[in-house]
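Residues pack. Consider this:
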Amino acid sequence: MTLRFSLKYLVPILILLLAGGIYHVLLASKPDPEKPVLREKVWQIRAIDAIPRELAPSLTLYGRVESPGQLQAAAPGGGIVDAIYVRDGARVATDQLLVTLDERDFAAATLKFEADLRDLENQIAELQIRHRANLASLETERELLALSRAEVERLQKLQQQNLTAESALNSARSEYGRQELAVMSRQLEVDRHPAQLEILRARLDRARAQLDEARLAMSRSELRAPFDAIVSHVGVAAGDRVAIGQTLISLFPVDNLEIRAHLPSTHIAAVQQALALDVGLQASVIDRPELGPFELRRLAGEAEATGIDAFFEIGGSSEQMRPGELLTISLALPPLDGVYAVPYQAIYGNSRLYRVVDERLDAIDVRTVGQARGAGGEMQVLVRSDQIAPGDAIAVTHLPNAVSGLKVRVQDD
């Protein structure tokens, strides 16, 4: 019993010990694995040689067609529209009839002011007659005043001699006072005459001006084109009642259109210098070569933080454009020396590119001065930087993880 019991527990223990020994032997005889070697990734890129050149940069601007001579023809007075002779987009010649208003709405005002004018002229004539009568009456009143004074003096002498009654002297004195008041009243009428005449003359001038306005409004009841133009908008129809100053029709001269485009602040100095030196700067509409070229005429009177508005004269292309039309134009700037032309994909954030130094990228800060077409017709960016030396290899492959020190290999073209 004892031996069987011992074997029952010793055999499993021996098996476990044997398995453990075999495991340790195998583990000790395991070959050491080779440690992995870290290899830096090399990015394949294309590069071009930095060659400074004298190039004329161009700017892409977004402009709007405007007309500084846009005319908003308004009603000269309130009335009814009689007839419309043109429609939107029609071309009209100088003095061509456009709109007519009912003349009866202006005739009544003209008659009223003519009557006011005649009334004031008659009042002035009456005032002059009255003034002449007052002058004559004043002389008579003064003579009567002298007689009254002489009578008072005579009666005073008689009264001193007790040859007349006191009542007679008092009556003479009363008559003298009344005559003196009459002279003063007549003199006041004479003195007031110049002021009254000026008041009536001022009212007469006002009436004449009102009559001229009424006659002018009547003449303008027929609206005619002041120049060769294109009708941009007709705002009324026959039978409409309009108020004074209400716009009837809009038109613009066919030879007075311009393009207004916003010029970035980084290029204002170069453009101003070119204008000061009378250097003609030309622009053309992208994808519409038949509409150009246009010459830059002036800059706006006020600038903004982002730049300033530039105005281009359209000239002979006005027939093919309309105010409000949006255009993409290319402005040719004066040539610049010492600039580098690189593809768009070589620029990072509009102010950085990378050159290759010892098979690694090196960041360079640059300033973009415009764009120009390459030999193959593709658009390239023109940049300047003191950190670029002629012959440097400029990376033109755009890498999303480009940083200084990144290892690269330049492909052979």
Notes: The chain has a mean pLDDT of 85. The chain has four domains: 45-53+339-410, 59-68+256-332, 71-102+221-253, 105-219.
